[in-house]
Amino acid sequence: MKKVAVVILNYNGKAFLNKFLPGVIAKTGEDAEIWVADNNSLDGSTELLAESFPEVKTIVNPYNGGFALGYNLALERIDADYYVLLNSDIEVSDNWIKPVIELMETDESIAACQPKILSYHDQKSFEYAGAGGGFIDKYGYPFCRGRLFLSLENDEAQYDSPTEVFWASGACMFIKADIYHKAGGLDADFFAHMEEIDLCWRLKNKGYKVMYCPDSTVYHVGGGTLPKSSARKTYLNFRNNFSLLYKNLPEDRLLKTFLIRLILDGAAGLKFLLQGGFQDFIAVIEAHLYFYRNLGKLKKKRKELSQNHVSRIYQGNIAMDHYLGRKKKFSELDQDLFS
Questions:
Q1: Phi and psi dihedrals of 84, rounded to 5?
Q2: Which parts of the chain register pLDDT below 50?
Q3: What is the pTM of this model?
Q4: Which of 23, 52, 70, 159 falls between 20 and 30 A from 300, CA-CA?
Q5: Which of 228, 264, 222, 225 lies closest to 245, judged by CA?
Q6: Is the same domain home to 193 and 70?
Q7: Euclidean distance between CA atoms 276 and 279, whole angstroms
């Protein structure tokens, strides 16, 4: 079997490590090395690791550079054929590694893969961050099989076939190590949120596939870093979404997509304001201002990348389908619109 490294990025997550790391150790066994990359925590996480989990290998980053830079710094120091990026707030199940690696070994063009991600608190339900595999629509809005915006489906074996997806969740992402490094890793400027979508899009622009493996299941708490209602999360999501679109869209779709997104983001900001979410409204504005201020830097990044028409993008508008069309399930979407 290939050499696999499970790498848990931690920042002040001592409680999660204490709760979930024993299960990761027990259910990983000899299938992989287990590492914790700590982003300079202040809550005693590293002391806990040294005292209670001496078998786990530890890397301490010099500062908290967020999800993206934290992983980049750590993975430079870990020798493996496969990395498994695993959130600290995840409970793994028996035999959770081998099925994914076996699937990825069937095709050298598969660069990344995720397992089925269910909710830790309601283990019959898919979890927000990844569910049954990630997609985006033609305007860049992300969604999942099993999750459209905040509508979560119960797992009724409806997504129990391996399939190609657009993005794999950073909550539990398997990725070939050499491809990760050749692609330049995660974009550190994202800090957190949507960096895995950006990475997967860059991989697809290089001709690689991203897969979903239902034969492995993990259970995610979610919201461990920022709650879903956080204005900071709103800012990062809008900011990073604009950045990944600009970096990865093919030239013939770039201007049209951005013009339409200006209208859609304006509507989203107005919706926040009308619902009393003034801080979220401000977050949308600040996200756009960040994009304009950093356009020169983004242009340089775009020139260094390839932009192609890639598969598994939904050629509809998921926001319109969900909020106006009342579609709550992935199966209700027009499957012919997945190019």
A1: -120, 110
A2: 224-226
A3: 0.95
A4: 70
A5: 264
A6: yes
A7: 9
